[in-house]
């Protein structure tokens, strides 16, 4: 069941999901790819708990944060971003997988006739490929990752664009994510923010950044949606 803070069930028309840390457990592949880049240059690596704090603002920002101790210039960082992108493209399938309960939740939302979407700060090609390959048979009405010229979350623009693509008012959208970036995005876009406690960050971060409800497992989302809306 949802944990506090919570709200009364209400009618939503769409659920928008973050990808990493919400739909998919991707942290081991992210960490392994970045650590291989660091190891190849003789630099210290990071553990999984550290990567859970480094991710959330897109691939380029992850690399910049990992390289901060080395005082590199923009040209050097740009080259390492390309190296990381290539390394991650080769290896993201190794351990990444849906969190337990996610496929069941998506099937139930489809049964109820709710629209669903993915909105990620991961680059769009990765977002499209990973959604299709790791969630086969799960229907999404829109999938959007980071694309040039569109601000990343927590800017509200990409969330508002998703709502428009779904033909749903932002106020009728629930946004489920696992970091402050997702909660800030939902608040700024006028959506209902729900924090996923199985992801990369803790309850304190989610609540302090606007979570209206927290859930401990994917199927705990269902009580927040009110009565069964099956069509």
Question: Can you describe what's shown?
Answer:
The protein has 231 residues and is α/β, with parallel strands linked by helices. The chain has nine helices and eight strands. The chain has a six-stranded parallel sheet with strand order 5-4-1-6-7-8, with helices on both faces. Strands 2-3 form a two-stranded antiparallel ribbon. The chain is globular. The model has no long low-confidence stretch (mean pLDDT 92).
Q: What is the CATH level 1 assignment of the largest domain?
A: Alpha Beta
Measure the end-to-end span.
24 Å
Q: For the residues shown, what is the average pLDDT? A: 92
CATH topology of the largest domain: Rossmann fold
Cα shape: globular
Largest sheet: 6 strands, parallel
Q: For the largest beta sheet, what order do the strands appear in spatially?
A: 5-4-1-6-7-8
Tell me the CATH architecture of the largest domain.
3-Layer(aba) Sandwich
Outline:
With 231 residues, the chain is α/β, with parallel strands linked by helices. The protein has helices at residues 27-40, 48-54, 59-67, 74-91, 102-112, 124-134, 157-166, 180-189, 203-208, and strands at 14-17, 24-25, 97-98, 115-123, 142-146, 173-177, 192-196, 213-215.
